[in-house]
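Give me a protein, keeping tokens residue-aligned:
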Amino acid sequence: MKGKEGTKGFFVFSKKHGRTYVYLVRATYKNQKKKNIPLFSFGRLEDALNNMYNWRDNFDLFPILLSELGYSWEDLHEWILTLETGYSKYGRKLCIAND
């Protein structure tokens, strides 16, 4: 399971009160158990996409926390494509694609 330890992060979606929320998390493994560590909350799906569009157009608005974690404009662009298409950059279908 060590191979997945170095991943930069992935999206997790949570549905509450009929709304979908987007979180960026990183998986860690200890004693063959997986634990997701939240890195950033993007908020509601609609708001997350709008914020990402704004950040892409004006990267100075990109959250400092994400920059400190090593994320760049290229990562942001991949996230936007992922949320728009419902597929990850590796071709995996996301749970939000079923909505």
In short: Confidence is low (pLDDT under 50) at residues 1-6. DSSP finds three helices and three strands in the chain. Strands lie at 10-16, 19-30, 33-44. The chain has one domain: 2-89.
